[in-house]
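Dear support,

I submitted the protein below through the web form. The confirmation email said the job was done, but the results page showed an empty box. After a refresh the structure appeared. I'm attaching both so you can tell me whether what I see now is the final result or a partial one.
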Amino acid sequence: MTRARTVIVVLASAGVLLLAGRAIAARQAAPSSAVPSPVGTPTDNGLAGFAKILCSAVFVSGRTPEDGVRGSAYFFMPAAERDQVKWTVDREARLVRASFGGLTREARFYGDQGCIIQSTTTPGIHFTPVKVSTTLPDAMSQNWPMGDRADTTLPAGVDRAKLDAAVDAAFSNPDALTAAFLVVHKGRVVAERYAPGITKDTQLESWSMGKSLAATLFSLLVKDGTYTLEQPAPVPLWQRPGDPRAAIRNIDLLRMSAGLKFVGNQEGAPSGTVLDHYYIYTGGIDSYEYSITRPQEFAPNTHGFYRNCDPLTIGYLIKQAVTKRGENYLTWPQRALFDAIGIRRQVLETDPFGNFLFTGYDYGTARNWARIGLLYLQDGMWQGRRILPEGWTKFVSTLAPAWPRPVYGGLFWINGDGAWNLPRETYLAAGAGGQNTWIVPSHQLVIVRMGHMRGQGAARAATNRALGLVMEAVK
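What the results page shows now:
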């Protein structure tokens, strides 16, 4: 057993022991006066999100404004106001405005950094945008997975009729707004379909699948020795004498078990509250600064909660390491990861301060996500080269000990409760609106489903039927 694998096993055992004592873990909180809180009303913040999402739909994904409004832009608006927003798209200025009840918010397109909300107090952005370029040749000049020339010959024993039925099932309900469905089996693209107006090159809303991308990028800094899983997270603010956050480890952040006080979207909050979970998207704020200033609520590794502050702090640590070594942070993901696995463009949007909003403002193609899934399916190897540190795929797919249900690992979800019609060993990148990349090691499968936000309620049943048929096809 290698040192990396030994560390992971030991940490998992330690986590189980800590979980046993979580009932008596003391809550430790910093003075509330020192902690920033959301500003603005739900309507004001919702309009900011509306403008940003519509801006990205038009200028990043290439969708029509009407399609973006119908399928996606409404998400952050209060329910009663969602379909009453007035909007305009200024293509020359690359600007979107959203208005309701006398309030107007704007978002502007900044090239490879995507669309960014314009703050009402400090308009514009507070960093210098850069162009993100690939070093790879044209995708049609290389075979899959480094390129897009795909061999669609079925591996032996695969049932084509069942695969076709699976794709049909994924698109069977128009209300699901499915945009893409793709199956990779034994390294080959064996099924693929897109909605009208969508192609293999369309950068689609990926939402919280970006959290798994944050874990992947962080792993590169573990591999090169910059960070370790078990070290206390080197956030300078937390190193003050007596600060309880000094006990938070990198592994706690990756497991969403850091215990920072942060109002999530799955914990319940009074009506009319602007949740921290959404404010980092809509506030036009420094999202990294906001995340690292959260006080401690629970001891680390005692409670697992879906809270955006944890992966955003991982993003903070990535930025800290990359800039400290003198590299360009905004181009680093392309250079360090994407070029290595055949991804020529993945739009990682930022806040106005140039911080990647990995938690949801990320856009990629279905094939991009299939490549990321394939990297994990291959245990972090890519065409004979180790990309991810040894033991990393095992870590992210192992149940986080502080979570009460068997559904979360290391910024990847786990099918531990069998909710998906896939083996329980399956782990996945998952995001709002039905964005999913499933990794099924026992069947050498990667399955990607992407769609638009308004369809997420209808998407679950249709997608699960499709997954069941894929499993029948590859038995």
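Response: this is the final, complete result; the empty box was a page-load delay. Residues 3-26+200-464 form a domain with the Beta-lactamase fold (CATH 3.40.710.10).
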